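Whiteboard transcription, Tuesday session. T.W. wrote the structure tokens on the left side:
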């Protein structure tokens, strides 16, 4: 059951960009713009953030829609899942990361899946332009 709920979390994050874990907080994928690095530009990145506000689709709703079950049954699954992934005040979601006291640490696996070009730097080069000049020869007949 834990693995199935973790898959629902991962798929919902990738498809919708955000997911609320009731009474825990909201996980959100945020785009970080490209940065100038030396004489090059780093690729844009997607990062996974956590906030204590609850302003996205609930994991309970996601479970209910994926499993086609009632909200009450989905809530029961969520509470049992939460009991199994909570250790000493930490919520550890395998494949996603861990939440501890309103701070979040994403796993490298999901970050690498979100950013296949992570760490690459693009160095712009100047293109040489060739101008083709026209030479007009005027012949004057006398």
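and on the right, the sequence the group agreed on:
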């Amino acid at each position: 059951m834990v693995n199935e709920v973790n898959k629902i979390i991962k798929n919902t994050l990738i498809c919708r960009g955000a997911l609320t874990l009731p009474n825990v907080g909201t996980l959100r994928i945020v785009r970080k713009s490209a940065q100038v690095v030396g004489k090059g530009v780093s690729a844009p990145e997607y990062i996974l953030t956590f906030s204590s506000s609850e302003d996205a689709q609930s994991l309970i709703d996601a479970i209910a829609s994926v499993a086609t079950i009632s909200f009450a049954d989905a809530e029961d699954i969520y509470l049992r899942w939460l009991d199994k992934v909570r250790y000493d005040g930490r919520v550890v979601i395998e494949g996603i990361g861990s939440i501890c006291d309103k701070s979040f640490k994403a796993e490298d696996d999901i970050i690498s899946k979100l950013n296949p070009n992570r760490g690459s730097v693009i160095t712009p080069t100047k293109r040489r332009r060739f101008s083709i000049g026209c030479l007009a020869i005027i012949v004057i007949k006398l």
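Someone added at the bottom: DSSP finds four helices and ten strands in the chain.
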